[in-house]
Specification:
Elements: H1 3-57, H2 65-76, H3 82-114, H4 120-128, E1 135-138, E2 143-144, E3 149-150, H5 153-167, E4 171-175, H6 187-192, H7 198-213, E5 221-228, E6 231-238, E7 246-249, E8 252-259, E9 262-266, H8 268-281
Parallel strand pairs: 1-4
Antiparallel strand pairs: 2-3, 4-6, 5-6, 7-8, 8-9
């Protein structure tokens, strides 16, 4: 067992506790929404249904609106009405939970989409900033422009860069752009894949993240494609990750960090110090 494996093992218990807390917070969020759904259907939906029922049966004459609303609520807690109340409560619980789920997904997707480049002008503006701590250029995913052939070792470099961004402040990885900012495109990469389209490219990238960084980190990488004059660039938006992200290199796990315009490997003591600083900052 190497030093990075020892560090990863030491941090597993802390990571599990952190995930439990985050799940607990999400559970509270959903519970609150579900509770609102239950209250809405039992205290509002029930009286409305009863009012409509009385109106349909012709029993609404001489009954005030106040009584039409109050009486069903009181009846809801009688033994004879418990089945209906239970059904309405269950529907409210389900509706509230579903609403909470879609609201959370919409919130996350809207935050991600706000900062994404979606056209060639935006891409060129991004390229003009040059490489930095939050921006990296890579000529390809797996196509070696010098050898004019596939070089799968380049995929490991992509994984290393993504892990470095996750361990720092996040950022954007442009695949299909050389170090000088020239757009080369990913067309040669596409032709080297089993599925020779953009979906195939994204799937291959997610496989790399899963294989090298772990399946739980695929959600922190999001791909957008921008094309111009027959050349397509993949913009990989990488979120910062609170937990340490180790990159597998064969049987060894390494810890990378984006520093300036380079991705640097930290030794065991440096990695542990950086991880502790991140925890203190959060």
């Amino acid at each position: 067992m190497n030093a990075m494996d020892c560090i990863a093992g030491m941090l597993n218990k802390r990571n599990l506790e952190s995930r439990r807390r985050s799940k607990g917070m999400l559970g509270c969020f959903w519970t609150w929404k579900a509770g609102v759904g239950v209250v809405t259907l039992v205290l509002i939906g029930h009286p409305v249904l009863e009012l409509l029922h009385r109106w349909r049966m012709g029993d609404g004459t001489g009954i005030s609106i106040a009584n039409s609303l109050i009486d069903p609520v009181a009846e809801a807690f009688t033994v004879s009405m418990l089945p209906i109340t239970a059904v309405l409560g269950a529907l409210g619980l389900l509706g509230g939970a579903v609403f909470a789920r879609f609201q959370e997904r919409w919130r996350r997707s809207s935050v991600k989409q706000d900062s994404r480049v979606g056209d060639i002008e935006g891409l060129r503006s991004l390229i003009s900033q040059g490489e930095g701590e939050r921006l990296e250029f890579k000529s390809s995913l797996r196509w070696d422009w010098r050898r004019r052939s596939v070089n799968k070792a380049l995929e490991g470099v992509i994984a290393k860069t993504i892990s470095g961004l996750m361990n720092q402040s996040g950022g954007v990885l442009l695949i299909g752009v050389d170090d000088g900012g020239s757009i080369l495109g990913i067309e040669n990469d596409l032709m080297s894949l089993r599925r020779k389209d953009l979906d195939g490219f994204e799937q291959r990238l997610m496989v790399l993240v899963t294989t090298h960084l772990g399946g739980d980190h695929t959600g922190a990488a999001h791909v957008v494609f921008v094309s111009d004059r027959g050349k397509t660039v993949a913009l990989v938006y990488v979120d910062a990750v609170a937990d340490p992200v180790f990159c597998k290199d064969g049987d060894v796990r390494r810890y990378y960090l984006r520093a300036g315009n380079t991705t640097t490997e930290l030794d065991a003591s440096e990695a542990l110090a950086h991880i502790e600083r991140k925890r203190d900052a959060s």
